[in-house]
Amino acid sequence: MTRRKVFTIDGGAGRAITAIPALEKYAKAHPDEDWKIVIGGWDTLFFGNPLLQDRTFSMDVKGLFETVIKDSEIVHPEPYTQWAYYNQQCSLAEAFDKIINQTEDHSDLGKPNMYLCKAEEKAAANALAGVKAKQNKDITILIQPFGRSARVDNGDIIDDSSRSIDPSVYTQLVKKLSQKYNIIFMGEGEFAKEIESEDTHSEKPQIPDLRSWSAIIEACDYFIGCDSVGQHIARAFDVPGTVILGSTFAENISYPDWFQIIDDRKTEKRYSPIRICGFDNHLADRLNDRLMEFDDKEVTDIYTRIVKDIKEKVS
CA 239 to CA 213: how far, in whole Å? Predict the structure, then answer.
């Protein structure tokens, strides 16, 4: 007898979203098969998905092991261990597809799909109406400058992985952009508090969860971010944007065919072998340490490129 498959998805919210296209592809290819998804922390991102919602379980459900997992075959897709991934020849979504669907053909792999309910969209519309009334511009931008690996250290925001936008770069950029656009800061409360004195130009709403943030992103006209979950949500809702990258590679973690990618190439970056080699990962972070630092001229260039992109993509 063939055992039921259980796909276990772990890691951050961005990884969960990038697994969606491959899981939807599997669902379409196996409509009558009894298979499940167990996910750590981000099962709510699959809510409303007609192909995945009923198959998805939170890892933190009582009795899950006995009722779902024990008599099943666990498939634990890990994109970072795929040769094509750590050699920048496939994306997270394609690596998931390779493992989940056992294929090298990703031509039928769509974008991630997320589904919001009317109440979530209404709450976001109300929030944006407040921002527009206060900042009084026609176009609204959401900016997520800091990724999951960022932390507050004695009054400074530090990201040892160099994925987050440097705080001084962020504040310069927001000051320039706020002259033309409404600005919403996406980030945790501790980050909002640390930048509050330098960034007086953005609205910093206290949003309770990632689904609510997803609705805000969907309602905005444009997205600016780094290697973090916001860019995946923006892509799911076809929101145009700019992604500023430091230590990671667009081919792996972003959507170069959709977003404008700003990638500092003055210093050669070193691939960080996350989940493969711990000490080499640490050494790569040291070599990549300054990749998210830009001087005044470079910040002005980034600003100019963003404005040009908005003019081309936002009506």
Answer: 13
